[in-house]
Specification:
By secondary structure, the chain is of the alpha+beta class. The chain has a seven-stranded mixed sheet with strand order 1-2-3-4-5-7-6, with helices on both faces. The chain is globular. It comes from Actinophytocola glycyrrhizae.
């Protein structure tokens, strides 16, 4: 049985934050790593649910158990976040809120100093995405269906290509992205950037 793929609804927000946390350790459950259970979602889910041009789809089978989030224009998204998303979070989470070098502290530093996509990448692959599935939806084709629906939607929105970041430790995800046509475009110590045309 396949999950139903549908558009995100406002009532899904807390579930998506929870899925982000439960997959936030290179695909494994990060619940025990973070003092603040909403912190990961504030960076990797929340802005995608508010940015006007974003696409947000969920996999629903007796409740939402996965999602895919994407934007057609990463540069526009980064500018929007700087104006409309990060300021309130910077007030809520000042630098030094959590012990130095803790997982929470590293996310707070991302809020205050968010990375920006490489110009070389966004020139050819301006869209980007995040996808997370709980174990009950993994390995059954639901991830492929969610990602395909997002890629189709972003292509219809005019994006010529898409990229994503993935931790090197998340070998299962890297294999999935390769099967979906993504190739490595940039490599860093702990992560890769992968991309594909739309």
């Amino acid at each position: 049985m396949n999950a139903t793929i549908r558009t995100y609804q406002r009532a899904d927000e807390q579930v998506l934050y929870d899925i982000c946390l439960r997959t936030g350790d290179s695909g494994e459950d990060a619940t025990d790593l973070y003092r603040d259970p909403r912190l990961l979602g504030e960076v990797y889910v929340g802005p995608y649910l508010r940015f006007p041009a974003a696409l947000a789809l969920v996999g629903d089978e007796d409740g939402v158990a996965g999602y895919v989030l994407g934007v057609p224009d990463t540069v526009a998204f980064e500018l929007w976040c700087e104006q409309s998303w990060w300021p309130a979070l910077r007030t809520r989470y000042p630098l030094g809120t959590f012990p130095a070098e803790s997982p929470d502290d590293r996310i707070v530093r991302l809020i205050h100093h968010p990375p920006t996509a490489s110009p070389d990448v966004v020139e050819r692959f301006p869209a980007h995405l995040h996808i997370d599935l709980l174990p009950r939806l993994q390995g059954r084709g639901d991830g492929r269906r969610l990602l395909t629906a997002l890629l189709d939607g972003l292509a219809s929105a005019g994006a010529p290509g898409i990229h994503l970041g993935v931790a090197r430790a998340n070998e299962r995800a890297i294999g999935f992205y390769k099967r979906m046509g993504f190739t490595e475009t940039e490599a860093y110590t702990h992560s890769l950037v992968m991309a594909r045309p739309l």
